[in-house]
TrEMBL record:
Protein name, entry field: MT21D methyltransferase
Pfam families, sorted: Methyltransf_16
Keywords: Methyltransferase, S-adenosyl-L-methionine, Transferase
Record-linked Gene3D superfamilies: Vaccinia Virus protein VP39
Source domain of life: Eukaryota
Length: 187
Protein backbone atom coordinates (compact mmCIF):
# COMPACT_ATOMS: atom_id res chain seq x y z
CA UNK A 1 0.00 0.00 0.00
CA UNK A 2 0.80 3.58 0.68
CA UNK A 3 0.00 6.74 -1.26
CA UNK A 4 1.15 5.26 -4.59
CA UNK A 5 -1.55 2.58 -4.59
CA UNK A 6 -4.50 4.98 -4.63
CA UNK A 7 -6.10 6.61 -7.66
CA UNK A 8 -6.38 10.11 -6.19
CA UNK A 9 -9.12 12.52 -7.28
CA UNK A 10 -6.54 14.77 -8.96
CA UNK A 11 -5.46 11.82 -11.14
CA UNK A 12 -9.07 11.31 -12.27
CA UNK A 13 -9.48 15.03 -12.99
CA UNK A 14 -6.25 15.15 -15.01
CA UNK A 15 -7.01 11.93 -16.92
CA UNK A 16 -10.48 13.21 -17.86
CA UNK A 17 -9.00 16.60 -18.81
CA UNK A 18 -6.63 14.82 -21.20
CA UNK A 19 -9.62 12.95 -22.63
CA UNK A 20 -11.28 16.27 -23.54
CA UNK A 21 -8.60 16.67 -26.22
CA UNK A 22 -7.29 19.96 -24.84
CA UNK A 23 -3.71 18.76 -25.42
CA UNK A 24 -2.66 17.07 -28.67
CA UNK A 25 -1.17 13.81 -27.37
CA UNK A 26 -1.09 11.56 -30.44
CA UNK A 27 2.49 10.53 -31.26
CA UNK A 28 3.83 12.82 -28.51
CA UNK A 29 6.53 11.81 -26.03
CA UNK A 30 4.97 11.91 -22.56
CA UNK A 31 6.46 11.29 -19.11
CA UNK A 32 4.39 10.90 -15.96
CA UNK A 33 6.13 11.70 -12.66
CA UNK A 34 4.99 10.04 -9.43
CA UNK A 35 2.65 7.87 -11.48
CA UNK A 36 1.47 5.64 -8.62
CA UNK A 37 -1.12 3.43 -10.33
CA UNK A 38 -0.31 4.91 -13.75
CA UNK A 39 -3.91 5.98 -14.40
CA UNK A 40 -2.99 9.35 -15.95
CA UNK A 41 -0.16 8.00 -18.10
CA UNK A 42 -2.24 5.06 -19.28
CA UNK A 43 -5.02 7.49 -20.28
CA UNK A 44 -2.45 9.48 -22.31
CA UNK A 45 -1.36 6.23 -24.01
CA UNK A 46 -4.99 5.45 -24.92
CA UNK A 47 -5.04 8.85 -26.64
CA UNK A 48 -2.05 7.90 -28.81
CA UNK A 49 0.87 9.22 -26.76
CA UNK A 50 4.13 7.34 -26.28
CA UNK A 51 4.27 7.31 -22.50
CA UNK A 52 6.76 6.41 -19.81
CA UNK A 53 5.16 6.24 -16.37
CA UNK A 54 7.69 6.71 -13.58
CA UNK A 55 7.72 6.11 -9.86
CA UNK A 56 9.82 4.47 -7.18
CA UNK A 57 11.01 0.86 -7.39
CA UNK A 58 8.32 -0.42 -5.01
CA UNK A 59 5.54 0.72 -7.37
CA UNK A 60 6.92 -0.86 -10.56
CA UNK A 61 5.04 -4.14 -10.12
CA UNK A 62 1.71 -2.33 -9.69
CA UNK A 63 2.45 -0.14 -12.73
CA UNK A 64 3.27 -3.21 -14.84
CA UNK A 65 0.05 -4.97 -13.79
CA UNK A 66 -2.04 -1.89 -14.64
CA UNK A 67 -0.28 -1.45 -17.99
CA UNK A 68 -0.92 -5.12 -18.82
CA UNK A 69 -4.58 -4.91 -17.75
CA UNK A 70 -5.16 -1.88 -19.99
CA UNK A 71 -2.97 -2.69 -23.01
CA UNK A 72 -6.04 -3.40 -25.16
CA UNK A 73 -7.00 0.30 -24.84
CA UNK A 74 -3.57 1.73 -25.71
CA UNK A 75 -3.21 3.31 -29.16
CA UNK A 76 0.25 4.77 -28.47
CA UNK A 77 2.69 2.99 -26.20
CA UNK A 78 3.29 2.81 -22.47
CA UNK A 79 6.12 1.49 -20.32
CA UNK A 80 7.21 1.91 -16.71
CA UNK A 81 10.60 2.96 -15.33
CA UNK A 82 12.06 3.84 -11.95
CA UNK A 83 12.69 7.54 -11.43
CA UNK A 84 13.62 8.92 -8.05
CA UNK A 85 13.25 12.69 -8.00
CA UNK A 86 16.50 14.61 -7.71
CA UNK A 87 18.58 11.86 -9.32
CA UNK A 88 20.05 11.51 -12.82
CA UNK A 89 17.52 11.79 -15.66
CA UNK A 90 19.87 11.09 -18.59
CA UNK A 91 17.90 8.00 -19.66
CA UNK A 92 14.75 10.13 -20.01
CA UNK A 93 16.29 12.51 -22.56
CA UNK A 94 15.58 14.12 -24.96
CA UNK A 95 13.02 16.28 -23.14
CA UNK A 96 9.45 15.00 -23.46
CA UNK A 97 6.66 16.98 -25.13
CA UNK A 98 4.56 16.65 -21.98
CA UNK A 99 5.21 15.88 -18.33
CA UNK A 100 2.16 14.83 -16.32
CA UNK A 101 1.89 15.14 -12.53
CA UNK A 102 -1.15 14.39 -10.39
CA UNK A 103 -1.05 15.08 -6.65
CA UNK A 104 2.74 15.19 -6.35
CA UNK A 105 2.83 18.21 -4.02
CA UNK A 106 2.27 16.99 -0.49
CA UNK A 107 5.60 16.02 1.02
CA UNK A 108 7.91 18.88 1.98
CA UNK A 109 11.11 16.82 1.74
CA UNK A 110 10.32 15.99 -1.91
CA UNK A 111 9.88 19.59 -3.14
CA UNK A 112 13.53 20.35 -3.92
CA UNK A 113 14.18 16.95 -5.61
CA UNK A 114 10.96 17.31 -7.62
CA UNK A 115 11.92 20.80 -8.79
CA UNK A 116 15.42 19.60 -9.74
CA UNK A 117 13.88 16.76 -11.75
CA UNK A 118 11.51 19.17 -13.52
CA UNK A 119 14.40 21.49 -14.41
CA UNK A 120 16.53 18.58 -15.63
CA UNK A 121 13.73 17.02 -17.71
CA UNK A 122 12.10 20.03 -19.37
CA UNK A 123 13.17 21.54 -22.64
CA UNK A 124 12.01 24.89 -24.05
CA UNK A 125 8.93 23.24 -25.62
CA UNK A 126 7.99 20.87 -22.79
CA UNK A 127 4.54 21.44 -21.30
CA UNK A 128 4.09 20.25 -17.71
CA UNK A 129 0.52 19.55 -16.64
CA UNK A 130 0.33 19.61 -12.86
CA UNK A 131 -2.98 18.68 -11.25
CA UNK A 132 -3.33 18.91 -7.49
CA UNK A 133 -5.97 18.98 -4.82
CA UNK A 134 -5.76 22.10 -2.70
CA UNK A 135 -5.64 20.85 0.86
CA UNK A 136 -6.29 23.06 3.86
CA UNK A 137 -5.20 20.81 6.72
CA UNK A 138 -1.88 20.77 8.59
CA UNK A 139 1.22 21.82 6.65
CA UNK A 140 -0.38 21.33 3.22
CA UNK A 141 -1.08 25.03 2.45
CA UNK A 142 2.50 25.96 3.43
CA UNK A 143 4.00 23.15 1.30
CA UNK A 144 1.87 24.15 -1.68
CA UNK A 145 2.81 27.83 -1.31
CA UNK A 146 6.53 26.98 -1.07
CA UNK A 147 6.34 24.69 -4.12
CA UNK A 148 4.81 27.35 -6.35
CA UNK A 149 7.15 30.02 -5.00
CA UNK A 150 10.22 27.88 -5.83
CA UNK A 151 8.75 26.76 -9.15
CA UNK A 152 8.32 30.34 -10.36
CA UNK A 153 12.08 30.94 -10.23
CA UNK A 154 12.54 28.90 -13.41
CA UNK A 155 9.03 28.33 -14.76
CA UNK A 156 5.95 30.23 -15.89
CA UNK A 157 2.60 28.95 -14.68
CA UNK A 158 -0.91 29.29 -15.96
CA UNK A 159 -3.99 27.89 -14.24
CA UNK A 160 -6.48 26.17 -16.54
CA UNK A 161 -9.94 27.58 -15.76
CA UNK A 162 -12.43 25.17 -14.22
CA UNK A 163 -14.78 25.53 -17.19
CA UNK A 164 -12.13 23.87 -19.40
CA UNK A 165 -11.97 20.78 -17.14
CA UNK A 166 -14.15 17.76 -17.92
CA UNK A 167 -17.77 18.64 -17.14
CA UNK A 168 -18.29 15.74 -14.75
CA UNK A 169 -14.76 15.26 -13.37
CA UNK A 170 -14.00 18.65 -11.88
CA UNK A 171 -13.93 20.21 -8.46
CA UNK A 172 -13.43 23.72 -7.08
CA UNK A 173 -10.50 22.48 -4.96
CA UNK A 174 -8.68 20.55 -7.71
CA UNK A 175 -6.51 22.69 -9.97
CA UNK A 176 -4.69 22.03 -13.23
CA UNK A 177 -1.71 24.24 -13.97
CA UNK A 178 0.38 24.35 -17.14
CA UNK A 179 4.07 24.93 -16.48
CA UNK A 180 6.71 25.97 -19.03
CA UNK A 181 10.38 26.86 -18.71
CA UNK A 182 10.98 30.59 -18.62
CA UNK A 183 12.43 31.74 -21.91
CA UNK A 184 16.04 32.91 -21.72
CA UNK A 185 16.23 36.64 -22.29
CA UNK A 186 19.13 37.75 -24.48
CA UNK A 187 21.29 40.83 -23.84
Amino acid sequence: GGVGCVVWDAALVLAKFLETGACPLARRHVLELGAGTGAVGIMAATLGANVTVTDLEELQELLMVNIENNKHLVTGSVGAKVLKWGEDVTEFQPPPDYILMADCIYYEESLEPLLKTLKDLTGPDTCVLCCYEQRTMGKNPEIERKYFELLQRDFELERIPLDRHDEEYRSEDIHIVTIHRKRAVGP
